[in-house]
Write a structure and sequence with these properties.
The chain folds into 2 domains: 249 residues, Type I PLP-dependent aspartate aminotransferase-like (Major domain) (Aspartate Aminotransferase, domain 2, 3-Layer(aba) Sandwich), CATH 3.40.640; 112 residues, Aspartate Aminotransferase, domain 1. A hairpin with a 2-residue loop joins strand 11 and strand 12. The strands form 3 sheets. The chain has a 7-stranded mixed β-sheet, sandwiched between helices. Strands 9-12-11 form a 3-stranded antiparallel β-sheet. Strands 1-10 form a two-stranded parallel ribbon. The mean pLDDT is 96. The protein has 394 residues and is α/β, with parallel strands linked by helices.
Amino acid sequence: MSILKDKFLLNPEITYLNFGSFGACPKVIFEDYQKWQRELEVEPAQFITVNSPVYLKGAREALANYIHCAADDLVYVTNPSYAINIIAKSLKLNSGDEILSTDLEYGALDRTWNYYTKQAKAKYVRQKIHLPLVSKEKLIEDFFAGLSSKTKAIFISHITSSTALILPVKEICAIAKQKGLLTIVDGAHVPGHIDLNLSELEADIYTGACHKWMLTAKGCSFLYVKKELQELFDPLVVSWGYEADSPSSSQFLDYHQMQGTRDISAFLTVPRAIAFLKENDWKTVASDSRALVQKNAQFFCDLVGAQPLCPITDEFLGQMFSIPINPLSAERLQRYLFQTYNIEIPVMVHGESTYLRYSINAFNTQKDLDHLSIALKEIIEVTDFIAVPERLNK
């Protein structure tokens, strides 16, 4: 995979193990991004008032073909948090209603649901998922143990952030559908990472980031809503799409796409990103990356005296792995790894637990993980930054 490293803009002096947070844009896709920005600046009026709807339609059609849904059932947004705010703000909740989720969700979206459920005097239920995971069936059992007669919708990650776990969302959505529940899925880490087929998944609402594993320019994500539900959701910003002078056939598109002056260049890089993935046989890249992730997972857990969060298989793991650690300070450890070893890697606090999460993509090799292992060994030996059970027992 190292041959692909030159295709990225990343600083070669940095061991970059943090692809999961913000992605990384290959040179040709970044050039495509700048091309759109230049066109915008050369003739802003034509770009915004005449060309933007046509360009966005083309970008939606390319993405829809890639994730298997109708192009008019999705709109571009800057990030999944923006998308979930659209949903949570418009969802008609009554006092006592419940949104069933897990205790593994992304912190910003926990905050989003807490904000809007409190306003409605409803409840956001963060159902306990027992770790380490032992089976898909046990996870599903854990999740639906939080179901009650007051549950109106479920909200769940397809791939979790801090813990980097692939959850059985297809099975969970099928069960929820049988129970008459609205299904809302955070797939921030999914497009370009694992296969996504929205026509088979049958989630009512799905959001994903294209600027992570799909490699587009930053600020490019999407919101998909089933057609029969689209009129339920108002735009966060009321603009030209409301009572539009020239309405399209879709209120959903008008409300959420016609936003006046904004730079849509990142959205327009999706077709070039999809082409790049095909040109570089990204299915093989992803498979090789998963293999590298799994090859090293148990070693890192043993190094810090931890247990893996799940069976080390494709069922639960993609191109990321979270190592449970016990640092003196998560922030201090993260900065020390970067400043002392030039390793870019997140140290993520989630509830009472902390995880060191490495991400692997086309530019990474075993050498990068060897560098991380050397750094961790030295830190454990000469500092008190990480508490290891064996040391604690001495």
